[in-house]
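Hi all, posting the design record for the shared folder.

TITLE: backbone redesign
STEP: 1 of 1
STRUCTURE INPUT:
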């Protein structure tokens, strides 16, 4: 199995939209994405990669769209922003095969070896055990003093409490 990160293509839009509409994939997000929201997200990432050389890349597994992973600048204010975060989302059929781990390692390598970032953050809903385990396998360390209420999720919502992890170069 060959896992790589690449730029977005038009042929990625249909499987990307299907992944973003999957309620299990989007379980730890406020809601699944519409086709229009999904297409807009892919377009934004494609433009960011073209313009600055990094963003959320497509995870390509043996020539097939599997999801995305990469680097992003959070679009909200918190005690730890501005920063660069690492994130991922894979289509369900690609779960449990080590793909997210391998792709995220490639993104972290790019962050530290190519961009020379001193630190990369990651965060997720406190209840998202799968992502938390991946963060720990990647060597990110939980910053218990950095846990926060996500400003874009209503307070009291089961997803509002987020945990913060850090990786240093």
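Okay, here is what came back for every position:
SEQUENCE:
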């Amino acid at each position: 199995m060959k896992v790589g990160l690449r730029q977005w293509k038009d042929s990625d839009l249909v499987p990307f939209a299907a992944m973003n509409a999957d309620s299990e994939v989007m379980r730890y997000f406020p809601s699944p994405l519409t086709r229009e929201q999904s297409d807009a997200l892919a377009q934004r990432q494609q433009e960011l990669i073209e313009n600055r050389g990094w963003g959320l890349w497509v995870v390509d597994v043996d020539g097939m769209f599997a999801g995305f992973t990469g680097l992003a600048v959070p679009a909200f204010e918190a005690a730890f922003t501005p920063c660069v975060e690492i994130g991922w989302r894979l289509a369900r059929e690609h779960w449990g095969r080590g793909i997210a781990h391998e792709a995220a390692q490639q993104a972290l390598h790019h962050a530290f070896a190519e961009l020379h970032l001193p630190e990369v953050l990651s965060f997720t809903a406190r209840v998202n055990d799968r992502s938390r385990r991946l963060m720990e396998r990647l060597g990110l360390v939980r910053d218990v003093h950095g846990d926060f209420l996500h400003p874009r999720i209503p307070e009291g919502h089961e997803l509002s409490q987020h945990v913060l992890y850090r990786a240093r170069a």
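COMMENT: The first helix runs from residue 13 to 21.
Let me know if anyone wants the other runs.
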